[in-house]
Amino acid sequence: MSEQETRGGPNEIERLDREYTLGTWTRQRDFDPTQIVDTEGPRIVTADGDSLLDFSSQYVCTSLGYDADRIADAVDEQIRTVPYVNPGWATEPRARLSEKIAEITPGSLKKTFYSTSGTEANEVAFKIARSYTGKHKILSRYRSYHGATAASLSASGDPRRVAQGPEIHPEVPGMVKGPDPYAYGSSLDPDQSLEYIDEMLKLEGGTVAGVLVEPLVGSNGVLTPPDDYLPRLQEIAHDHGAVLICDEVMTGFGRTGEWFASTLYEAEPDIITMAKGLTGSYQPLAATTVTEEIADHFEDTLLNQGHTFAGHPTACAAGLAAIETYEEENLVENAREMGAYLKAELEALAERHPSVGERRGVGLHQGIELTRSEAERVPFEKRSDKVSGRTTVLDEVGARAKENGVYFYTSVNTIVVTPPLTIAEEHVDEAVAALDDALEISDAAMDD
Fold first, then answer.
1. Average pLDDT over residues 338-343
2. CA–CA separation, 229 vs 311, rounded Å?
3. Class of 69-328 per CATH?
């Protein structure tokens, strides 16, 4: 039973929201939002006064929790001085933030273009890669999500791309899909998947501008590659005249215990895209950062890209304050330490529950994939269930955990465990206890 049903129906704000707002990624008959009235630390508070420990950082984005006063103060000050000017003017927040991003990103990444969401950041990356290489195709992977706008969704392997259908969302030409390093659900092991991509690039005949990957896949199952996968993939891309684009919209800004997951795997992408943790989601801001060599290409070539809110000074002030918060509160290090503790607790949890087929992830980017059968690893949820509207065992497990006071995001047969970087051991213990009880549902639903 939902919170609204428990209290006898929606309140006024929930009713208004339902009546006048189009809900995202859902059939509108299923849009049933619960009002959030307050936040505290890593918790959200509903209109009924229920306090929920947020152990998914919403959509893996509220990396600083909800009490980042430095960001609130920076936004307030910027709004009162220079709230907005168009991107043709210089502002201190944009200049300082760009310098800071160049400092913390891996390799020779230097110059940044700003937008407002991860999907826009990826669209910019495609245009830059095409201009720089003189080629037009983008090779991505089948288990991936890169955004909801035309080219980014076309590049995605997510079920949401398929669900739209060509009559609603005709795919942008030039998008090619390859396999993932995912031994659990693929006929290829990670080494074979690299060999397959190498052959694909050969057979595409030198027409691929960029190879686009999430270093650790997010909403399509928290897929974790072998340590040498990303450097080898970059080498393959370069051998065929393509650039490596790393989509770090989810994994950037400390989530894996490094500033960027690319660093974790000792890779130096040619282009990196980011959003979410860039401001801790206190303001909508995204970025596309390129190497100095790629930036030099545009000294005499038109960068044919721009929009009204590119480098919005208030959003950039939030981004700079967020990075300063990560640094001063040692949150990247905390993600590494808490990630090790969380990993150990989740592995112990998996030992207690036969329905846990696999635990994956690094740092505070963890996932638990469930199975109907210990012997065959049969998923409870099909990929198509992400858009079917059907209530799945995963949904029931998530709902029970929520009843126990902890919010988890579930997707493609995986419980996503991605808490804010501010958490302590007591929060891990609370979340694991809630999940321990909830997994009794999936254990009881197994086929064996």
1. 98
2. 33
3. alpha beta
Per-residue pLDDT tens digits for 96-150: 999 999 999 999 999 999 999 999 999 999 999 999 999 999 999 999 999 999 9
Contact status, residue 252 vs residue 287, Cβ threshold 8 Å? no
Rounded Cα distance between 400 and 287, Å, is: 37
Q: At what angle do helices 331-352 and 425-444 cross, to 10 degrees?
A: 30
Residue where the block lists tokens 């000792």: 266
Contact (Cβ atoms closer than 8 angstroms) between residue 133 and residue 243: yes
d(CA 121, CA 288): 5
pTM above 0.90, yes or no: yes
The whole-angstrom separation of Cα 254 and Cα 442 is 32
Is residue 208 a contact partner of residue 242, using CB atoms and an 8 Å limit? yes
Q: At a CB cut-off of 8 Å and minimum separation 6, what does 305 contact?
A: 113, 124, 127, 128
Q: What is the DSSP letter of 23?
A: P
Cross-strand pairs, 365: 362
Write out pLDDT tens, residues 374-384: 888 788 877 66
User: What does the pLDDT look like over 372-414, one tens digit per residue?
Assistant: 988 887 888 776 666 666 788 999 999 999 999 999 999 888 9
Radius of gyration of the chain (CA): 22
In the chain, domain spans: 35-66+330-444, 69-328
Strand blocks (E) in 116-200? 137-141, 175-178
CATH architecture assignment, domain 35-66+330-444: Alpha-Beta Complex (3.90)
Burial letters 186-210, b for 16+ CB under 10 A, else e: bebebeebbeebbebbeeeeebbbb
